[in-house]
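Entry for the shared binder. Reason: the reviewer on the internal report wants the predicted structure included alongside the sequence.
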Amino acid sequence: MEETFVIHGDLLWSDEDRELLMLEDGYLLVEEGRCAGVFPTLPESLSELPLEDYSHCLVLPGMTDLHTHASQYGIRGLGLDEELLVWLKKYTFPEEARFSDLSYAKRMYTAFTEDLLHGWTTRAVIFATLHTESTLLLMDLLEKSGLVTCVGRVNMNRDGGENLCESDAETALRDTEEWLDRCKGRYTNTTPIITPRFIPSCTDDLMKGLSEIAEKYGLRLQSHLSENPGEIELVKKLVPAAASYGAAYEDFGSLLNPETPAVMAHCVYSDEAEEALIMKHGTYIAHCPGSNMNIASGIAPAARFLRDGAHIGLGTDIGGGSTLALPVTMKEAMQSSCLYWRLCDSNVKPLSFAETFYMATLGGGSYFGKVGSFLKGYEADAVVIDDTDTRNGQALSLLERLERSVYTPSACRVSAKYVRGRRLNLS
């Protein structure tokens, strides 16, 4: 791909005020991996540049998956009539224990990466397992795909079940640093991220040690927060001095740091005080509506978080969620916000389509910097969607085509993907 080129198609993107912008039959100028302008007609000065022509296709910013578990790809759709803590013990932990076997890990992680590559996602924040070798294997596969990701070697030293529990905090911290050392100089698009599974899986000394490692290496953190009532009660017992689940993370040191923002998945039961703590530290909320409904965790107040100014994006949360398709997560986010408004708080109006699209693109993408929009200066991540089969001969507006594509993504085809201005190989 040339460093400077033009993409032609039906463009849709969000601005920083969460407004949905549209330009039918438009032109996107890409210069050295960044968006450099959108035009209704191609300027004469650009007419000699290489043109990537996607006439009559939707051209969208690449979407960001803020929370998913690559190691749970093999159990997606299984056991989803159980609640979180039971489901973890019956399905998740036994499955993750299998990733000590590199042949099994390669099979599952290859399938996961291929699925992610061929969807609407260009960036993702991902849990692996506590196994260093298979975590590096996942990182290698993602690096080769061209997607931009953060990947975490999971830490857990209590209550993990058979073959999925590190012996003690000292061993876990040593193994984490060894993993980080092996990552140095190895990747361009793949970044390690500190990953305590969640407080019930990690002793206090492990959490404090991970805080020190995060500070030492200048790394970010991903974990889970206020997902399920049973989980929250367990955290109260394990960390009784903490004012809340979120405050427990804060009390362990620099795990929450506005200079290296964390991603916290779920926040279903985060009240106003915990939301204020989240915003104080610039923490990103990964809203995972499919998972929250599947394993009966609850309905997160996503619209409230967004309108209060919190950083919030979407997460597929495989395997609590059942698909890596972010359009499906968009649909689930809108549906769950309707239920929250109707059943929980009538003052919190449901998410609009424009707000949900923003969360999937610029809202989550901003975790990676200027990502998730076609605004000038943003990194040129783009997904080309052929929605021909969704139209049924109807004269739909550009907005209607996008709405229908989000609700019927299986009828669409991803024709091309770009990350940082480079076209990915989808063959």
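Summary line for the report: The chain has 14 helices and 17 strands.
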